[in-house]
Amino acid sequence: MKKVTMHNGQATVDAHELGPMLGLEPALVPEKMRSGEITSLFEKGVDDDAGRFRLSFYYNAKRIRLTCLEDGTVLSTTTVPVRPKT
């Protein structure tokens, strides 16, 4: 993924790019976000990280984290296992 779409300070990731990263068909992403099966976190950088943000998606014991410049340019993408919610 090269870029996250930014509009009025809101980040949007295309389901066609996010789905495969989560191991899902893109058509299932909106439904799973609405149901709360996929959750997300937006964190804005401060101090040394000012001008950047992190966007994390959690699904099926996996976290996808995108670290981006404020214009949405993706600097890095990481995927790590996380403890499932109980």
Fold and architecture overview:
The chain is α+β, with helices and mostly antiparallel strands and 86 residues long. The protein is built from two helices and six strands. The chain has a four-stranded antiparallel sheet, with no helix packed on it. A two-stranded antiparallel ribbon has the order 1-2. The mean pLDDT is 94.
Architecture blueprint of SSEs:
Elements: E1 5-7, E2 10-12, H1 15-22, H2 29-35, E3 39-44, E4 52-59, E5 62-69, E6 74-81
Antiparallel strand pairs: 1-2, 3-4, 4-5, 5-6
**What fraction, in percent, of the residue positions are helical?**
10-25%
Unreliable stretches (pLDDT < 50, length at least 5) are: none
Oligomer: single chain
* Main sheet overview: 4 strands, antiparallel
Brief descriptors of the model:
two-stranded antiparallel ribbon, 6 strands, 17% helix, alpha+beta, 4-stranded antiparallel sheet, 42% strand, single chain, 86 residues
Give a short summary of the structure:
This protein has 86 residues and is an alpha+beta fold. Helices cover 17% and strands 42% of the residues. It has 2 helices and 6 strands, in the order E-E-H-H-E-E-E-E.
